[in-house]
Amino acid sequence: MLAVALKVIVTAILVVAIAEVAKRSTFAGAVLASIPLTSVLALVWLYADTGDGDKVAAPASGIFWLVLPSLVLFIALPLMLKGGWPFGVSLAASMALTAACYLATVAILTRLGIAI
């Protein structure tokens, strides 16, 4: 239980630190946020818990394929905001569009026989 609490604390501190850096420098915040921090932390925590490189390799491969549809959020959100859409609506719509792209990507990868 202590290990889980430590993971949550470290992860939360990193996310808050990135948000604070972004307040001071949008470029630095973008650089830090563009690092797949959540993925890296999940892989580190998985390896720390299992010590098994094969168990880490499987989700790492899946992450690669699922990064592609996640980029839709970062295209749609700024376009909607610059188009005058309210923030909440823009975020919800871009997340819905991203979810649809995830579903399409999974369907395509399944059809191609690529396991994720």
Map the helices and strands.
Blueprint: H1 2-24, H2 26-34, H3 37-50, H4 53-82, H5 87-111
Structure characteristics:
mainly alpha; 0% strand
Number of helices: 5
Helical/strand content category: mainly alpha
Helix and strand run: HHHHH
Mean pLDDT: 91
Major sheet details: none
Q: How many whole angstroms does the radius of gyration measure? A: 17 Å
Helix content: over 70%
Uncertain ranges:
none
Number of strands: 0
Coarse morphology: flat
Distance between the termini: 29 Å
Strand content: under 5%
Notes on the protein architecture:
The structure is a single chain. The chain is mainly α. It has a domain at 53-116. It is 87% helix and 0% strand. The protein has helices at residues 2-24, 26-34, 37-50, 53-82, 87-111. Helix 1 (2-24) packs antiparallel against helix 2 and helix 4 crosses helix 5. The mean pLDDT is 91.
Compact description:
The chain is mainly alpha-helical and 116 residues long.
